[in-house]
Amino acid sequence: MNDKLDIHADLFGVDGCKAGWFVVKQCGTTGAIAANVIDNFADLLDWKGANAIVAVDIPIGLASNGIRTCDTRARKLLGRPRASSVFSPPVRAALGASSYEDACAVNYAASGKRISIQAFHIRNKIAEVDDVMRTHHDAAMRVFEVHPELSFMHMQMEQGGPAHGLRESKAHAPGFALRHALLAKCFGSVIDTALAARRPAQASRDDVLDAFAVLWTARRIASGKAFYLPEVIETDAAGVSMTIHC
Description:
Number of helices: 8
Oligomer: single chain
Distance between the termini: 11 Å
Radius of gyration: 17 Å
């Protein structure tokens, strides 16, 4: 883990949403938290304005064979049933496919595997972040892949719960309530403020919770408490790290 991160940096928790990206920002100076929706991921990357740390729920680094060790390790840590929330991203060549069948064909030619429909639906967002990671020289020092279900698991552990992924699905009321309760202990009423201000046409309630979850991990990254999967960092053919931070 980088030991030169600024503990007073602005922190961002970012999750893809219908209108673009749902962003929760914690000001490094005051600690104040605000949420908003932005169109483009690259809009966050004004490094001269803030020594920012951006935690984002999106695959970063694309293996040429479609298999990332970080995903395998994350599934093992989460266990059933949450392991299924970690899906393998497409190979880079498949990001530009115009149809699901085309994407599967390209991916199969490169890796011997088709891609999931979930991966296909977020291919444009994967491509957005991938472009940033390959073209912004300091992005590797500022942008970190985080999986919210791993964040929730470690929140649960810190609050005295078991060391496995949450059993309840966030798609159902008990699972949503559990995740909300975990976040409320970390962020207080600001989580409810963000949920109340959310516009359904822009983002779902799950997007709000997931953005706060990865912001929680951004705090851990800034403080040096986070760890990463796998222990030995791997990079893809473009030199981009394939690492999930927890």
